[in-house]
Design a protein that fits this description.
alpha+beta; 24% helix; 24% strand
């Protein structure tokens, strides 16, 4: 259980969280999930919470492991969080009343990964192809000697090669259940905020009535 002081501190962060395209206080592990269709086109959406391998990765492996089921994830556009079926997923348009946020489409895998490489707001990228889920991590390397930052503080972000989720170094299903998910943490914050402050709060880039937050 998270203590009241930590809830209040996280609530402050949550109240100031903006959309992934803006500078903000990091609250969640953000990811993109994608699927390759029969023609090689890539369809992708943004997922705000629990993007780490034991979160979104484990969910995809265990509940969306076939093309028929996985493609359903892309019907409703960007998501706040994923669940074990579509009814337990939280989509911004369907469940939050946001403007339409359709899945993005790319000509191929290269175009998709090329666009996301270097996007420091997206920590993990998942791709379903050939009936398997793959994962890529956003990492960084030290800038070369001839980099413009002469103080050598710069680092260059990049995406790693795709590997099967089961092979990723951070995928440890034996540890699942030992730690509160970001989704559950935010839910607790929402409950706490229902007793304090104004009637509305700014969360994940939009205004949500806190009475309906849970």
């Amino acid at each position: 259980m998270i203590g009241n002081k930590r809830i209040r501190r996280l609530a402050f962060n949550l109240l100031h969280t903006q959309s992934p395209s803006q500078k903000d206080i990091k609250m969640s592990t953000r990811s993109n999930i994608a699927i390759e269709d029969e023609k090689g086109k890539i369809h992708a959406i943004y997922v705000h919470s629990d993007g780490y391998p034991n979160g979104v990765g484990h969910c995809l492996l265990n509940h969306y492991s076939s093309f028929k089921v996985a493609k359903e994830l892309f019907r409703f556009g960007n998501a706040s969080s994923l669940g074990h079926d579509l009814n337990h997923c939280s989509f911004y348009e369907r469940d939050w009343g946001r403007d339409e946020e359709k899945a993005r489409q790319y000509n191929n895998e290269w175009c998709f990964l090329s666009e996301l490489s270097g996007d420091i707001f997206i920590e993990y990228v998942y791709l379903f192809k050939k009936n398997e889920w793959f994962i890529s991590s956003q990492e960084s390397m030290k800038a070369p000697k001839d980099h413009w930052d002469t103080n050598k503080r710069a680092s260059i972000p990049y995406l790693t090669k795709l590997v099967r989720i089961e092979e990723h170094r951070d995928y440890k299903p034996e540890n699942i259940g030992d730690q509160m998910t970001e989704k559950d943490m935010i839910s607790q914050i929402g409950s706490a905020l229902s007793k304090i402050g104004s009637e509305n709060m700014l969360v994940q880039g939009g205004t949500v009535n806190k009475k309906k937050f849970n």
